[in-house]
Amino acid sequence: MPELSRRRALTAAAALAAASGAATLAAPAARAAGHHPGSSPAPFDEVYKGRRIQGRAASGGGHHDHGGGYGVFVDGVELHVMRNADGSWISVVSHYDPVATPRAAARAAVDELQGAALLPFPTN
């Protein structure tokens, strides 16, 4: 059995510290986003900046199920959303700006569209 060197001990300690630090940082983000494994966000239906945004449990039959069975719509057009592993949400319109809820994703999309129409997301 090889002897434990100082370098190996420090490398192992650094790896353990990094792994526990990542888990510690991810847990509060998931709690802040209201993420509970297996839970579906509450439905919503509102007018935001003159645009009707809606969110509800998806009935299936659409494209890939990245939204965890949840559909978001802007003026009746589906906004493709995806739930990240940490519980945050992104949309096809604001892909690099994760938000806490599908409602926030819909609002961010309306802000980004600046009055332009949302075009249907191609399924093929």
TrEMBL record:
- Span of the signal peptide: 1-32
Q: Which domain of life is it from?
A: Bacteria
Q: Does the keyword Oxidoreductase apply?
A: no
Q: What is this protein called?
A: Secreted protein
The answer to keyword Ion transport applying to this record is no
Keywords from UniProt, A to Z, are:
Copper, Signal
Tell me, which GO biological process terms does this entry list? melanin biosynthetic process
Return the similarity comment: Belongs to the melC1 family.
Organism, scientific name: Streptomyces davaonensis (strain DSM 101723 / JCM 4913 / KCC S-0913 / 768)
Q: Where is this region: Disordered?
A: 28-67
Regions annotated as coiled coil? none
